Amino acid sequence: MIEAHGLTKRFGSALAVSDLSFRVRPGLVTGFVGPNGAGKTTTMRMILGLDRPTAGSATVNGKPYARIGSPMHEVGALLDARAVNGGRGARAHLLSLAQTNDISRRRVREVIDIVGLSDVAGKRLRTFSLGMSQRLGIAAALLGDPPVLIFDEPINGLDPEGIVWVRTLIRSMAEQGRTILVSSHLMSEMEQTADHLLVIGRGRLIADCSMAEFIAANSRSAVVVRTPEPDSLARAVADAGGTVSPAADGLSIAGLSQDQVARIAFTSGIRLDHLSETRVSLEQAFMELTASSVDYHGEPATDRLPVKKGA
Amino acid sequence: MAALTGPAFPASPASSDSPASLARAGLLGTIRSEFTKIGSVRSTYWTLALLVAVSLAWSIIVCDGTAAHWAHTSPQARSGVDPTQLSILGVALLGQLMIVVVGSLAITSEYSTQAISASLTVMPRRGVFYAAKAAVLAATAMLVAFPASFLAFFVGQSLLHSTGVGATLVKPNVLSAVLAAGAYVVICGLFSFGLGALLRSTAGAISVAYGLLFLMPVLARALPMAWYDAMVRWMPGGQTPGVITSTTSTQSFNGHPFEPWVELAIFAGYAAVLLIAGGVALCRRDA
Lengths: 311, 287
Prior knowledge:
The structure holds 2 protein chains of 2 kinds.
Chain A: E1 2-11, E2 14-24, E3 29-33, H1 40-47, E4 55-60, H2 71-74, E5 75-78, H3 90-100, H4 105-114, H5 130-142, E6 148-152, H6 160-175, E7 179-184, H7 187-193, E8 196-201, E9 204-210, H8 211-218, E10 221-226, H9 230-239, E11 243-247, E12 250-254, H10 258-268, E13 274-279, H11 282-295
Chain B: H1 27-39, H2 42-68, H3 75-79, H4 83-112, H5 116-122, H6 126-159, H7 174-199, H8 202-219, H9 225-232, H10 240-244, H11 260-284
Helix pairs in contact in B: 1-6, 2-4, 2-6, 4-6, 4-7, 4-8, 6-7, 6-11, 7-8, 7-11
C-alpha cells in the first residue's frame, strides 16, 4: 500500500506537484498517467524519499520511506533505467545494490536470469541498449522480491516483445497480491495493463478511478455519414437532438445511435451513401482530459469522471 | 529473451506488512556495496596504478640523479640533502594529483550518472551511505598510498646507497615522514570527496581541489610579504608536502611552517570541514 497525503512539490516558482492525495492498493496494477512534465516522476521520487515534499507526505506500508528497515525487501523501484555508471558491469551493478540490503549473490544471478540478461551480465553498462537497460532496472527492482513495486515508464525503449514481457510480468506480480504503481504518458499502454488509474495533469490529480470506470465514462462514439444533401440531414439530425460537425467527406454526428440516424434519414427522404460508427479512442479522451486541466488551470473537467478530492 | 519463469516469483503473495525476520539494511552491507562499486570501474585501477607509478618514478629520477652527481656536489650542498625527502616527496606532491581524481569521482560519478537515485533508494539513510562511501575511499587510498610511500622510500634509498647518506626507517623522523606522505595522500582523497559531495560535479570538484592545493598558494605570493608569511602555514596544499616529508630542519620554507605533524593535522582539519559540509549537503538536498 502506498499512500500520499496532500503531496506538494515546488521548484522555485513552478509548482510541479500540487496537493496529491491517493492510495495505491495491493493486488492491482495502478496506472499513473499524465502528459510529460505532469509530475509523475517527481511524485514517485517523493514517495521514495529522494525529493523532499514542499508540503504533505507519502508513506509506503504505513511508514515514510526513509524509516523502512530493509527497503529492497519492501519496495522495488525503477526510475531512470539509464541512470547507471556505464563503466560498471551488469552483475557488479546489481551486486552493489544487493549488498546494501544483505541480498545474496545467488539472488543476483536469479534476477539476471529472470530478465534474460545472463549472456551480457559481464558487459559494461555503457554498451547496453535502452531496452537492455530497462530489463536491468527491472532486475534491480526485483532483487529483494518486494511486495511493492514502483516503475517509472518501464515500457520506454522496449521492442514489442519486451513490451509484452513487461506487461505480463507486471500483471503476474499484481496477481500475487503485490502493490504496483506504473507510470506512463500513454493511455493506450495503460489500457492493456492497469486495473486502476491515477490521471494527473500539471501536477494535479484529475481522475482516480478504475480502468473500467474510465472506459465507461470516455467511450463516446460518433456516427459518420456521407450524403448528397448534408444540409438537410444536419437540420433533421439537430431537430432530433444530435450534434453535428463536419467530418472528412461527410458529417460526424454525436448523441445519436447509428440506427436512429438511419431512421431520421429514411423518414426525411435523404439518401445515405455511407453510415458507420466510430469510437473516440481512449488516448483521445485522455488528451482532451489532460488538455482541459491545462486550459482551466486546475479546474478539471470533472463532469464525466469520478474524481477523488482530498481523500 | 527469456520469458517470465516460474520460480522467480514465489507463489506466496508478498504481504504488505514488513518482514520481521529481515535485518535492517545497515553500514556493513553498504560498505561492502561501496567496495564493489569502487572495485568495478576501470578508472579506479588506472588512476591508482598511475599514483604508484609517478611516486616511484619521482623517487628513481631524483635519487638516481643525486647519486650520479654526488662526486661533483659541494660539501655544503651535501649537508643540505634530506635523503628521505628526496625519495618520498613525489608520493605527496604527485600522488595528490591522482587521488583528487579518485576521491572526487567516488561521489560525483553518482551524480553525473544519476545513479545516486538508485543508491539512495536502496539505502535511504543518507548519513550511512555517505559514511560508507568515505570509509571505503579512505581504506582504498590507504591500501595504495602507504605501500607507494614505502616503496618509493626503499627504492630511493637503494639508489642513494653509493653516496653513503642514505636513510633508514630507524633514523630520527624518517618513519613518521614516510607515513606522513601516505597520510597526506589519503587526506587529499577525503578533501576532494567532501568537495565532490558539495559541488556534485566531477569537473567542479577536481578543479576546485587543484585550485586550493596548487593555485592558491602560488597566487598568495602576490600578497605583501608579511601577510604571505603569516598565511602560508595555514594553507592547505602548497608547501605542506615539503614540510611533512622533511626529516631535518624546516628553516628553508617560507613563513615559519609548523612541525610536520601539525601541518598534517591542519590539512586534516580542512578535509574534515569539507567532509562534514559535504555530508550535511547530501543529507539535506534533494537527491
